[in-house]
Write a structure and sequence with these properties.
It contains 4 helices and 5 strands; from the N terminus they run H-E-E-E-H-E-E-H-H. It has 136 residues and is an alpha+beta fold.
């Protein structure tokens, strides 16, 4: 009896986990599409730099956070060491925005983005997990 309950929970857990991964995949791919569209529109604007990391050399693997102000809105962006070195000490920085001017990306952010690769890999992994749970 315990074995059937455990198997049921395990298979439903695999299916739910795989579907959750597929939802995250859609979000990641959408993020990549938005960055690509903003890059293609090429609306370069100047944003005020409110805050940068204290030291570009000690950002770590995940990078740092940057606070920018544009069009009356404050944007908190994540970036790597290259971005830090580009904007550190500046009062304004050129960024790209969409037509609604409610999203900002750094000038070279899309070229460095691996959203499509990571999204597809996560999606494939989610499909495999969902399939494994389904056939059990």
């Amino acid at each position: 009896m315990k074995s059937k309950i455990l198997t049921f929970i395990l298979t439903k857990g695999l299916i739910i986990g795989g579907l959750f991964m597929l939802i995250i995949t859609v979000i990641i791919l959408n993020n990549g599409i938005v960055k690509k569209r903003i890059t293609e529109e090429n609306n370069v604007v100047s944003a005020k730099v409110l805050e940068t990391p204290m030291d570009c050399d000690n950002l770590g693997r995940r990078g740092g956070f940057y606070k920018l102000q544009y069009n009356g809105q404050v944007f908190i962006k994540k970036g790597n060491r290259l971005i830090c070195e580009t904007i550190y000490g500046k009062k304004e920085v050129n960024v790209l925005t969409n037509a609604q001017m409610d999203k900002l990306i750094f000038l070279n952010e899309y070229e460095e983005s691996n959203d499509f690769l990571y999204g597809i890999l996560l999606g494939l992994f989610g499909l495999v997990i969902t399939y494994k749970g389904w056939i059990k």
